[in-house]
Each structure stands twice: as structure tokens, then as C-alpha cells.
Amino acid sequence: MDPLAVLKRNNVKTIGKGSKTLLFAHGFGCDQNVWQFVLGAFTDEYRIVLFDYTGSGNSEKSRYDSAKYASIDGYVQDVLDICEALELKETIFIGHSVSSMVGLLAAIKNPEYFEKLIFIGPSPRYLNAENYEGGFEKEDLDSLFEFMDSNYLGWSSAMAPAIMGNADRPELGTLLTSNFCATDPQIARDFARVTFFSDNRTDLKNLTIKSLTLQCAQDILAPLEVGKFVHAHTPGNEIVFLKATGHCPHISAPDETIRAIKTFLN
Fold this sequence. Notes:
The protein has 266 residues and is an alpha/beta fold. The chain has one domain: Alpha/Beta hydrolase fold, catalytic domain (Rossmann fold). The protein is globular and about 45 Å long. Helix 4 runs antiparallel to helix 7 and helix 5 (152-164) packs antiparallel against helix 6 (170-181). The N and C termini lie far apart (35 Å). Strands 1-3-2-4-5-6-7 form a seven-stranded mixed β-sheet, with helices on both faces. It is built from ten helices and seven strands.
């Protein structure tokens, strides 16, 4: 694919200076702006690449293909396209939520692009299963999607603050709600189904690159047991248990998140 077309499609932006590249990948319902609270700590030492998945943020929404993005592989291809377009090598990938598994699959497929992976609130499967606690029963997700399909804005206003946590700081929930509400409802529903019905547990063992899991407390999407599962089943994975609560520590606790990332990188 033409490199310039990829950069335009995914609204790719490059800032900072340094020989090492940090590639930041946002989670469901968001765009590259969610990284605004942590970027300043890295721009003096690293080249930083930001992007929006196709269909999110200021990407070219006309390029969104519901068939292509009906599985996580479509989002994996976005990342690999960006790596190829920018000729990235030995990149440090930082992915939030579902992007943790996007990065993992991209690194398994094309390991030469990556040096290290950092997972923020990762989950290889959100549904509970035999001998696995993912956080949700099938009935929970059925109800979630019924609400989402009938009233997306209402779903966003209810769900985003719960995902953010930190009820004593309602402005954080409002910030995430604004991200969710700015997303095209149909694309958001597609992405949500890809996210919540994915199962990448068996892929964890295939990662050959060093990785870090940042696990928050009181995270309704990626509970403590899930972070421990990722750590236990991913070769070369380190885990840091943050004091931060909720699912978005890069927004709610940027200083703690920055320290954990820098410790791992250094």
C-alpha cells in the first residue's frame, strides 16, 4: 500500500526527537488524543508515532470496511501498515486495552518491527470461561450490546465513567464520554464486538519479544486476575501493579504510568 495513503488513512503524526521510536496505540472508542497527558515525558528522548485506527478519530472514515474490521486482524494490519510506511524497526509499542492484543499479534506476525511491547490494561478474553475469569458473563455482554444498539449516546454516558473509574474525579469520566460520543455509532458497535468477543489466550505463548503489563486496581474491564493470566502465559512478560484505579491510567494517573514505562525502558 502507498505509504502516504497509509499515513493519511490513519491520521499518523510524528513528534519528538531521538533514535528510538515509541508507537502509541489507543483503545476502543478513543483516538490518539488520549495520550496527551503522558507524551511530554518522552518527546526529548524518543521519536513518537501517534495514529487513529481506521474509523476512529480523524482517520479517513471512508476507508473503513466492516468486513475487514470484523476481526482484530484488521486493526493488526493497520499497525503493520504504519510500521511499513514509516520503515520502523525495533519499535517500542505501547497499547491500551484491546490494542495490547493488537500489538501482540502484530509482533508475532512481524517481530522485526518491534523491540518491546507495553500493555496497559490488557485482556486476552473478556468473557468468563472454564478455569478463566475474564470479567463478564455472556448475559452481561448481551445486555451491554442491546443497550448500545438501542441508545449509543446513552450507553456512552453510562459506560465511559464506569470504565474510567475514579468516581471522585467526574471530569475524567466526562473526558472519556466525549471520546466515545465522538465515535461513529456503527463503527463503535463493530469495534466493541471485536473487542469483547475476542479470545487471544492461546496467542500469548507465541510472543518472542519482551513485554510489560501495567495492571490497574479496580479495573472492570481487565480485573486483577486477567493481568496475572497475561503475565503467567506470556514469555518474557513483566508485570507492574499500579496504585491507579480504573481502566485508563494514562489519563487518571499519568505520572505513575510514566514512571512504570520509563523503568521498563531503562
